[in-house]
Amino acid sequence: MSVLYIALPMALLLGGGGMLACILSIRRGQYDDLDTPAVRMLIDDKPSDETRSRDTRNQAPPTEAPSGRSGHQK
Questions:
Q1: What's CA 9's distance to the chain center, in Å?
Q2: Which residues 6+ apart lie within 8 Å of 47 measured at CB?
Q3: HEC profile for the chain?
Q4: Quick one: 38 exposed, middle or buried, by C-beta within 10 A (0-12, 13-18, 19+)?
């Protein structure tokens, strides 16, 4: 029976703290946008300067397009 004197106030404090944290996060807008975070990883970022320079070093030089309509010589 004496364990109730410790367990009950602890349970009430933990429950009250959880409720307070939930209310504060709702008021501060934590749950306003539920769709964007799920697709944020699919959005491409702008390539950085390091990535851009690495990509240009590994590319082959551009080739010239064949002259004429069909590209074949008779």
A1: 40
A2: 55
A3: CCCHHHHHHHHHHHHHHHHHHHHHHHHCCCCCCCCHHHHHHHCCCCCCHHHHHHHHHHCCCCCCCCCCCCCCCC
A4: exposed
Instruction: Give the chain's length.
Output: 74
Q: Which residue has the tokens 């074949």?
A: 72
Query: What mean pLDDT is predicted for residues 41-53?
Result: 71
If you search the block for the tokens 């009250």, which residue do you land on?
Answer: 16
**Whole-structure pTM value:** 0.47
